[in-house]
């Protein structure tokens, strides 16, 4: 029987991009385990809906029996773990789901992998990898002149989201150290690109601008994020899976620090060119009360990825941002299915409520 990889959260933004990239480059099947929360969207995977190498399973990473069954049934040789609650603002208003999925869910996944490997022959165990996909937010906030986060920067998470991710990173690390599970942890900076749920900064601004609604910017708009095009992140994860060393951490970023205000102005300039009838879109910018505990600056030092794994980003911020805007303009149907609730109704009809 051929081996496969298990992707968790593969119907979300980065996970779906990863599944599409994987199937475009490899013959090996992907088992895609996703709970289809509000952020999971099978429309993201329409291009592989009839591809026998894509095995979609609706389920929860907390369901250890299900995970163990999938691992054994599909001879899984690697897990790429994306599944998470991922939105900082939601974590502030309702942190519980973040603990349930990000912390408990990761615990159950690690335990399922450990039980599965214990029953595998040595050769299969030696080849196995568990890639735990995490965020730069676990490192907390940088001052204006601090060096970017490296793999040895201490954790200092400030939001319920980043605290839950940091907790899951510690579990993943401990499962390697204590049980020898071949875990590799990655910390990536902010991603942008196609299929991002329209609650996050870039799609929110594009869609609001297109419909003439205000562009709300937290505080003074000077918070800095380090942006990476999603396909570059997916390629980095494939390199990690291929050549990363178990027990190691790799920071992934685009060397692309921008203030939120700069990002929104750049989006407005692209929209002015592509949709001149709404120009100037920057007139819609509004400053709103800051997010509580809002981190000021994130930046990633990605030299280890380059030095050890030969990875570097392909996409410049300007071209990546233009591609992203063009994607949202060309996929108004995708947006409409989410915003009208039609997609949610489809999920409930086909899978029931969970
Ligand atoms: P997303 O919110 O778009 O997708 C998350 C996916 O996980 C959804 O498909 C959802 O249905 C699924 N899911 C949630 N709870 C689940 C559960 N209990 N069991 C199974 N599936 C579940 O998130 P994203 O932006 O694609 O982020 C993916 C991963 O990458 C997360 O772990 C996040 O912390 C990490 N990350 C994201 C960014 C970013 O900029 N978006 C940057 C660095 C790291």
From TrEMBL:
Indicate the secretion signal residues.
none
Cite the InterPro entries for this sequence: dTDP_Gluc_deHydtase, NAD(P)-bd_dom, NAD(P)-bd_dom_sf
Family matches, as Pfam families: GDP_Man_Dehyd
Protein EC:
4.2.1.46
Q: Which organism is it from?
A: Thiobacter aerophilum
Instruction: Give the cofactors, semicolon-separated.
Output: NAD(+)
The entry sums up its family as follows: Belongs to the NAD(P)-dependent epimerase/dehydratase family. dTDP-glucose dehydratase subfamily.
Query: What is this protein's name?
Result: dTDP-glucose 4,6-dehydratase
Among CDD domains, the record links this protein to: dTDP_GD_SDR_e
Reaction catalysed by this enzyme: dTDP-alpha-D-glucose = dTDP-4-dehydro-6-deoxy-alpha-D-glucose + H2O
Keyword match Phosphoprotein = no
**Keywords associated with the record:** Lyase, NAD
Indicate yes or no for the key word Zinc.
Answer: no
GO molecular function terms attached to this record: dTDP-glucose 4,6-dehydratase activity
Task: Return the broad EC class.
Answer: lyase
Q: Report the residue ranges that make up the NAD(P)-binding domain in this protein.
A: 6-323
């Amino acid at each position: 029987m051929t081996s496969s990889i298990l992707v968790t959260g593969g119907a979300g933004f980065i996970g779906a991009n990863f599944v599409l990239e994987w199937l475009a480059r490899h013959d090996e099947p992907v088992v895609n385990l996703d709970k289809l929360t509000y952020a999971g969207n099978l429309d993201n995977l329409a291009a592989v809906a009839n591809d026998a190498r894509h095995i979609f399973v609706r389920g929860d990473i907390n369901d250890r029996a299900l995970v163990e069954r999938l691992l054994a049934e599909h001879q899984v040789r690697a897990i790429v773990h994306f599944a998470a609650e991922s939105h900082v603002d939601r974590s502030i208003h309702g942190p519980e789901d973040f603990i349930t999925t990000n912390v408990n869910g990761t615990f159950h996944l690690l335990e399922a992998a450990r039980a599965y490997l214990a029953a595998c022959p040595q050769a299969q165990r030696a080849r196995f990898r568990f890639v735990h996909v995490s965020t730069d937010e676990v490192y907390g906030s940088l001052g204006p002149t601090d060096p970017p986060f490296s793999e040895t920067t201490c954790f200092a998470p400030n939001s319920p989201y980043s605290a839950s991710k940091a907790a899951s990173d510690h579990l993943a690390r401990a499962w390697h150290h204590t049980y020898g599970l071949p875990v590799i942890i990655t910390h990536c900076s902010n991603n942008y690109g196609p299929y991002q749920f329209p609650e996050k900064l870039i799609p929110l601004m594009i869609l609001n601008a297109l419909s003439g609604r205000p562009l709300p910017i937290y505080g003074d708009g000077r918070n800095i994020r380090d942006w990476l095009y999603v396909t570059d992140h997916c390629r980095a994860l494939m390199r990690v899976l291929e050549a990363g060393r178990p027990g190691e951490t790799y920071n992934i970023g685009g060397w692309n620090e921008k203030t939120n205000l700069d990002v929104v102005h750049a989006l407005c300039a692209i929209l002015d060119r592509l949709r001149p009838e709404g120009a100037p879109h920057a007139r819609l910018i509004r400053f709103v009360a800051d997010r509580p505990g809002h981190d000021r600056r994130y930046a990633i030092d990605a030299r280890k990825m380059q030095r050890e794994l030969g990875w570097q980003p392909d996409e410049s911020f300007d071209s990546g941002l233009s591609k992203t805007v063009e994607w949202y303009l060309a996929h108004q149907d995708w947006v409409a299915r989410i915003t009208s609730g039609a997609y949610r109704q489809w999920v409930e009809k086909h899978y029931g409520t969970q």
